[in-house]
Design a protein that fits this description.
The complex is a heterodimer of chains A (about 120) and B (about 110).
Chain A (H helix, E strand, L loop, with lengths): L4 E3 L2 E4 L5 E6 L6 E7 L6 E7 L2 E4 L8 E4 L6 E5 L8 E8 L11 E2 L3 E5 L1
Parallel strand pairs in A: 2-11
Antiparallel strand pairs in A: 1-3, 3-8, 4-5, 4-9, 5-6, 7-8, 9-10, 9-11
Chain B lengths: L2 E3 L4 E5 L4 E3 L2 E3 L4 E8 L6 E6 L5 E3 L5 E5 L4 E6 L8 E9 L7 E2 L3 E6 L1
Parallel strand pairs in B: 2-12
Antiparallel strand pairs in B: 1-4, 3-9, 5-6, 5-10, 7-8, 8-9, 10-11, 10-12
The chains are: A mainly beta (about 120), B mainly beta (about 110).
């Protein structure tokens, strides 16, 4: 399977702990996105990378959230000092360089389900 | 800020019934429009997309959607649903310029009874 992969698929942690999630995009996709999805809601955009550059991070939920994509391939999303309200599904998506302006199509991974106790 | 509204949170249909799921968005400029589907236990998959051109777009598995610019709508349709169409359906929009971030609706859970 050459789709977007995410690791781990499930994470249970205690309040106050730090967690890190990994996303591997589809090969040669230069754009990578992180979203959060809570119960009964659609995915909510968090941040996005084009190659290794983080082009939008103002929608990260707080300064406890950070993301990196150091070599323009895989990405990590870290949440420090987790809170119970951080419990959610964290989704990663990637997209190829568009063939025409403004025709970006995102492909999603299976997500990491975080439970904060 | 743009927003997406999906009118029905839950829809229950019998097999062979026709389906129409509503989606309206609020954004003043040109947009790209998408429908994603999430089957039970699976990840989000692209069903169809609209960038420009013919406002009636066809997707996978017999789905289609019509973009009506004057109504800011992008409704999803299928003439005859199957049990295997049971899933959650999400409408999403991004501006046709600038960042490629998607704004999603809350989703519609479709249950098709055999």
């Amino acid at each position: 399977d050459t789709g977007v992969s995410q690791d781990p698929r499930h994470k249970i942690t205690k309040r106050g702990q730090n967690v890190t999630f990994r996303c591997d995009p589809i090969s040669e996709h230069n754009r990578l996105y992180w979203y959060r999805q809570t119960l009964g809601q659609g995915p909510e955009f968090l941040t996005y990378f084009q190659n290794e550059a983080q082009l939008e991070k103002s929608r990260l939920l707080s300064d406890r959230f950070s993301a990196e994509r150091p070599k323009g391939s895989f990405s990590t999303l870290e949440i420090q000092r987790t809170e119970q309200g951080d419990s959610a599904m964290y989704l990663c998506a990637s997209s190829p360089r568009p063939t025409a302006p403004s025709t970006d199509t995102q492909y999603f991974g299976p997500g990491t389900r975080l439970t904060v106790l | 800020a743009q927003s997406v509204s999906q009118h029905n949170h839950h829809v229950i249909l019998s097999e062979a019934a026709s389906l129409e799921l509503g989606c309206n968005y609020s954004y003043g400029g040109t947009v790209n429009l998408f429908w994603y589907v999430q089957y039970p236990g699976q990840h989000l998959q692209l069903l169809l997309k609209y960038f420009s051109g013919d406002p009636l777009v066809k997707g996978i598995k017999g789905f289609e959607a019509e973009f009506i610019k004057s109504k800011f709508s992008f409704n999803l349709r299928k003439p005859s649903v199957q049990w295997s169409d049971t899933a959650e359906y999400f409408c999403a929009v991004n501006p046709n310029s600038g960042y490629s971030t998607l704004t999603f609706g809350k989703g519609t859970m479709l249950l098709v009874s055999p």
